[in-house]
Amino acid sequence: MKLLKRLILTLIIASGVFCVVLYTSCKKKKDPCSGVICHHGGACLSGTCSCPTGITGKFCDTVYKAAFANTYKGNGTDNEGVSYTNFRIVFAIADSNNTKMTMNIRDASGDSVNVPKLAVDLDGLTAAGSSFTIEPNTNATGDTFTGYGIISAASASMTLIQTRVSGRVTSYVFNDFTK
């Protein structure tokens, strides 16, 4: 009788251990991305946000180009010896594309110069800054503008190239413009 009681008790304990092991092995694994919200087109991979170009932060919550949307002031020269004093380069967010901005150039009084609003493609975006290229754009008189430069939250420098209908090319250099 004692042996039978021990045998039954052993079977009950073994069955209980078996049930616990079976239950925990069948329990659904927690999704590591559950509750993780990635902004600005980011995607959660294994609990961590993977951000698109131009975006950073734990939850893709920092847009680099937002730091570059400023008015930068300074002086420039061109290859014909003309100086440009107290000019402004105004960078603005164009659309939701993380690598595009627009740029306007204004003279010392704040008036627009004979340069159309230019589309800017940012490349190599980091918190420290970015290089950029200016997409070709033609003004009302047929002159075409292109160029390149660098930008950060505090400063901007660029070379703007104007090709006139006559074929004459003028390069404008604007270095160390600051906010």
Ends distance = 94 Å
Low-confidence stretches: none
What's the helix-strand series? HEEEEHEEEEEEEE
Count of helix runs = 2
Could you characterize what this model shows?
By secondary structure, the chain is an alpha+beta fold. It has a domain at 64-178: Porin (Beta Barrel), CATH 2.40.160. Helix content is 17%, strand content 46%. It is built from 2 helices and 12 strands, in the order αββββαββββββββ. An 8-stranded antiparallel barrel has the order 5-6-7-8-9-10-11-12. Strands 1-2 form a two-stranded antiparallel ribbon. It has a two-stranded antiparallel ribbon with strand order 3-4. The N and C termini lie far apart (94 Å).
Identify the notable features of this structure and list them briefly:
179 residues, Porin, 17% helix, 12 strands, two-stranded antiparallel sheet, 8-stranded antiparallel β-barrel, alpha+beta
Fold blueprint:
Blueprint: H1 2-26, E1 43-45, E2 48-50, E3 55-56, E4 62-63, H2 64-68, E5 71-78, E6 83-93, E7 100-106, E8 118-126, E9 129-138, E10 144-151, E11 155-163, E12 169-178
Antiparallel strand pairs: 1-2, 3-4, 5-6, 5-12, 6-7, 7-8, 8-9, 9-10, 10-11, 11-12
Give a quick precis of the structure:
This protein has 179 residues and is of the alpha+beta class. Helices cover 17% and strands 46% of the residues.
